[in-house]
Amino acid sequence: MSKSHFAIYLVQLLLVVGPSDADRIKDTMYMKISGSVACYRRMNATHQIGCSSARGGSVGVVHYCDSATDLDFILKNGSAGPYIPVLPISLLSAETVSKLSSSKVKISGLLLHANSENLLQMSHENQCPNDIFNVQQAPKTCPDSGGWNPWGTGLLYADVPFPMFYMHNDSEVSAIRHCFQAFNNHSFATQAARSLCSLELNAFMYGTTNTQTCIRRSNVVTNLNPVKFCDPLGDSNVWGALFPLVTGEENDSQPIRDAKYIVVAARLDTTSLFEETAGAESPITGAVALLTVAKLLKEMLPAAAASVQTNVLFILFNGETYDYIGSQRLLYDMERGHFPTDLPPNNPILPTIYPENVTLFIELSQLGVGEATYAHYLSADAWLGKFAANLTRNNPSTVVPLKPTPDSLPPSSLHTFIRGNTSIRGLVLANHQTAYQNRFYNSLFDNSSNIGYRYYNGSEIGAGTLQRHIADVATMVAKSVFEEVTGQAYQGGASPSLLLVSDRDWLE
Ligand SMILES: *[C@@H]1O[C@H](CO)[C@@H](O)[C@H](O)[C@H]1NC(C)=O
Ligand SMILES: *[C@@H]1O[C@H](CO)[C@@H](O)[C@H](O)[C@H]1NC(C)=O
Ligand SMILES: *[C@@H]1O[C@H](CO)[C@@H](O)[C@H](O)[C@H]1NC(C)=O
Ligand SMILES: *[C@@H]1O[C@H](CO)[C@@H](O)[C@H](O)[C@H]1NC(C)=O
Ligand SMILES: *[C@@H]1O[C@H](CO)[C@@H](O)[C@H](O)[C@H]1NC(C)=O
Ligand SMILES: *[C@@H]1O[C@H](CO)[C@@H](O)[C@H](O)[C@H]1NC(C)=O
Ligand SMILES: *[C@@H]1O[C@H](CO)[C@@H](O)[C@H](O)[C@H]1NC(C)=O
Ligand SMILES: *[C@@H]1O[C@H](CO)[C@@H](O)[C@H](O)[C@H]1NC(C)=O
Ligand SMILES: *[C@@H]1O[C@H](CO)[C@@H](O)[C@H](O)[C@H]1NC(C)=O
Ligand SMILES: *[C@@H]1O[C@H](CO)[C@@H](O)[C@H](O)[C@H]1NC(C)=O
User: Fold this and answer.
1) By C-alpha distance, which of 332, 328, 327 is closest to 313?
2) Taking the complete model, does pTM exceed 0.70, yes or no?
3) Which position among 138, 152, 406, 473 has the lowest Cβ density within 10 Å, counted as fewest Cβ atoms?
4) How much distance in Å is there from the Cα of 234 to the middle of ligand 9?
5) CA 252 – ligand 5 centroid, Å
6) CA of 471: how far to CAs of 3, 77, 297, 463, in Å?
7) Which ligand is nearest to the CA of 261?
8) How far away, in angstroms, is 248 Cα from ligand 5 center?
9) Distance between CA 47 and CA 212 in Å, rounded?
10) Helices marked H in 154-230 — which ranges?
11) Which is the closest atom of ligand 4 to the Cα of 65?
């Protein structure tokens, strides 16, 4: 999502030893760096956030830092600025960025790497993600100490006044280190008088100021080649129903107008400060669990019996990181009678589904292997307590218990629906009780190794694996939804395919 929708930019990195004037010298002294990703610009109604280089690129003298002390040294003693510090990514924090922004020695960019670092956590999301769009009521929905995401620096929402790149390639990082050591790392007082190792960072983005300004500028037609300064953030939610929404033969069908709906929801995408992430724990664990529930329920309930009054909607919400835009749009449409499509009420083609028709909302959030699976719900609703007890009874895992967790609701699309109507019944399944277990939430490193994923390539997928865990969560959800739909316990033998849950393509 974040990549294609509002980014009009060029990304390039050059390592330069200058000054030079002959072309042939240029070839030997410039090195183009390929393995890097840039931080990019975004806008909301009132602010701009993220980064951009200067038009044509931002140039600065390399200062390779192994520690915060090296950085402080150049901020105090630098005489040949502007500088581009090269830092281990673990040092990237809101304090570092604010120190660099306000420094007297000019900083024209920042280059980050994870060279030989054993990163224990990294998240640039807020500590209370989505807070202003969450249900505001007592008990507070974000824990006071550290929040849901205690590792969060909040940098994802900061306006950074210089470009930042993250470098993947260790040999390119050491090339920069060597260049720094050879040309820059001595006699700091005379740096200004000699040839220095420098970097040019090019990630220029046209958009500035805020959404209104940027869209207005894009709409001004000044010549025959209109410039597009920014794109709106947006994409599509994806949904499907367990049973048809209509009854009767093809070309002669009637909408089913008196059904109830259970929603099973998850996120479809994620974001990151740098334009890359695998999104392994968020959203992939939840989305894979959702697809597994859907496949399992289809095997348990191949067709709706005449007695079945309840249908199941599977929904993957898009763009939830940014103000829950996916669920807000879906709720907006539902409230106005525009879901599933924009047909008038009582049309002969499809039923109109309103929020009141949703009797239960189950959200599959982050579901990596944890000590327990927590069923969060906001009120101490007795009915939800019973549903959580059904989940517990249907949990096939002997290792990871289900723990009902009333009066608690982590950031989730369910917040949007409860804000629309407090009487909607819903719960969120996640592997954390208070603080996220995921130490890399919405970051570049929310990857397969950090959730302990292993590809088995045909050999047996045993107990205790991520695949087994997600299959178990899906089984308990599918069986409990089956009971809701039919009013009876499931007696059949359907079980999820571990091979499908394990499919490597999810994580690549
Ligand atoms: C750095 O600056 C401080 C004071 O500004 C000075 O005392 C120190 O000698 C300088 N160090 C070097 C290596 O230039
Ligand atoms: C826009 O983003 C900034 C920075 O995160 C935030 O302070 C501000 O409240 C946001 N504005 C709106 C209207 O959401
Ligand atoms: C790293 O960079 C070097 C030099 O640019 C290049 O030869 C090598 O293929 C790169 N390695 C990877 C894994 O991309
Ligand atoms: C720069 O020089 C100092 C002092 O000689 C040394 O301790 C440090 O490791 C050097 N830095 C790099 C990145 O080579
Ligand atoms: C339904 O209508 C379409 C278009 O008129 C037609 O191609 C199709 O054969 C019809 N299906 C049946 C089962 O009559
Ligand atoms: C949704 O609920 C309304 C009001 O309870 C009802 O009239 C309508 O038939 C329901 N719609 C569907 C599609 O079941
Ligand atoms: C909220 O939902 C309840 C139960 O579905 C319904 O009776 C009520 O009218 C809804 N309230 C609003 C404001 O839509
Ligand atoms: C729990 O399961 C029982 C037995 O299958 C079923 O009758 C009941 O309706 C379920 N309760 C809830 C709240 O889902
Ligand atoms: C995942 O991130 C860690 C850093 O936390 C890194 O060491 C590891 O190589 C990454 N794994 C993959 C598969 O990218
Ligand atoms: C998976 O197993 C097949 C057959 O044994 C083998 O050819 C293939 O290289 C293996 N792939 C991986 C990624 O290990």
Assistant:
1) 327
2) yes
3) 138
4) 29
5) 10
6) 31, 57, 13, 11
7) 6
8) 14
9) 10
10) 170-179, 211-219
11) 13
pLDDT along the chain (508 residues), means of 10: 30 51 50 86 88 88 94 92 93 95 94 85 95 80 84 95 93 93 91 89 77 75 66 88 92 91 97 91 96 96 86 97 95 95 89 96 97 92 94 96 94 96 96 95 94 89 93 98 95 91 69
Containing H/E element for 363? strand 358-364
Q: Closest residue (by CA) to atom 13 of ligand 5?
A: 250
Would you tell me how many other CB atoms lie within 10 Å of the CB of residue 471? 24
Tell me how many degrees the CA angle 425-429-433 measures, rounded to the nearest 5. Answer: 110
- CA–chain centroid gap for 293, Å, is 22
- Taking each helix axis from N to C terminus, what angle separates 325-335 and 413-420, rounded to the nearest 10 degrees? 30
- Name the nearest CA neighbour of 364 among 438, 278, 263, 239: 263
CA distance 416 to 267: 13
Angstrom distance (rounded) from CA 125 to CA 437 = 14
Give the Cα separation of 465 and 499 in Å (integer).
Answer: 12
Q: Which atom of ligand 1 is nearest to the CA of 188?
A: 14
Lining ligand 1 with CB less than 6 A are 76-77, 188-189
Query: What ligand has the least distance to the C-alpha of 32?
Result: 3
Is residue 37 classed as helix, strand or coil in its secondary structure? strand
